[in-house]
Design goal:
This protein is an alpha/beta fold and about 475 residues long. It has 20 helices and 16 strands. The strands form five sheets. It has a five-stranded parallel beta sheet, sandwiched between helices. The protein has a five-stranded parallel beta sheet with strand order 7-10-13-6-14. α13 crosses α15 and α19 crosses α20. The longest helix has 20 residues. The relative contact order is 0.08.
Length: about 475
Amino acid sequence: MKKILVVDDEVDICMLLKRFLTKNDFEVETAQNGKQGLQLVDEFKPDLVMTDFRLGDITGQELLLSIKKKMPHVPVLIITGYSDIKTAISVMKQGAYDYITKPLFPDEILVTVRKALSDTEEEAQKPDSGGPTKRGSTGRKSSGKNISGYIIGESEVSDELYKQIDLVAPTNFSVIIYGESGSGKEAIAHEIHNRSSRHKKPFVAMDCGAISKELAGSELFGHEKGSFTGALQMKIGHFEMANGGTLFLDEVSNLSYEIQVALLRVVQERKVRRIGGNKEIDLDVRIIVASNERLLEAAKQGKFREDLYYRFNEFSMEVPALRDRQDDIMLFADAFLASTNEELNKNVTGFSDEVLEDFMNYEWPGNLRELKNVIKRATLLAEGDRIEEKVLPFEIANYQKLREMDGEYSAPASASTTLPDNDSDANPSLKTVANEAEYDMIMQVLRQVNYNKSKAARLLNIDRKTLYNKMKQFDMP
């Protein structure tokens, strides 16, 4: 029987997960804070850990790093609210297996837990494996169309992008990749590496936006044992790990000025010295950086060293936003659906006409990452062999309607916030539509938990007082 440790500062969440997982043949222990969780890691020896990102005494990130030091092969799942998804993805780059968003859905939890345990067992059984390998910036399998797993688009802007990849990949040029969050900058960097002569050497990625100023130097350059408080053992930095291969620095503009100075020296001299060490280590590393802001503009504003910018800017490219490559949307959607079917062991064959129209109308502010997550959730919830509109997030299924109404209609200042009757104004305000969606969500969760208001508040990620106020506002039973 596999052992699972649940760490959450909310007792109700711990008990809910323990009952559910125990019914599904897992042995479960719970902890209400990080300190207790670390103690149980030593005593309970779990096969998997589920932890809330926000704990009372430490963060989920700190707990993750401590667990990985003790038991590096144990998969860790991060539980997080929707507003923390970006942070959760960053934590995954530091070793978390995956993240689960609130409200928690039993089927999604069970699928993710079993997949994590299965992948860990498969990696452990490989002859050359020392445990599970990092699966990329999102922690999921890539589902692509070409030999290296990258999805090739068919639009004109995609075609231009791939021409640039083909052009720069065989060289040793440093590359700057510009693009919005979630547009696939790391996937592009990996594709450049895969098509280069370095493809048999390491590809090492570091999210500079997720590393604190104090830790950035150690992560990049490594440190010797005892070089500073907390340096209990020698650490190899990302530059050494990538030696002979490619180092990818995501959101590089987030590095502090002091780190930029040290980074410039390493880039110029192609040598690195661990913090607290005396030995200089020769480097043969190709550097690819990514940013969602223009580094030259950041340099003019004094936020980024201009000399470092010119070192990196041997070649630059722009990853188009998904809204600018509409011809590719369904190609990406089909690829993500195929990989999700494999992951969830389902056989969803396609999308309804309404979903196809919704996908083409929506502007995808989260780009490919948002599309992938939407399809993963929709595939899980799909009841038949197609994804229907009812399993899409409200903002996507109603995007066109909301956009048309936004600014055209407004509720009177004295208008009631309670739900209108069926014979209300045929042109409701945006506020009314939002209220309807909120009402439907609250009622759905209340029915799911048999009107247990404490559980409903937990699943809705709000406190009980807010739930009571909402129920009073909507005149709920």
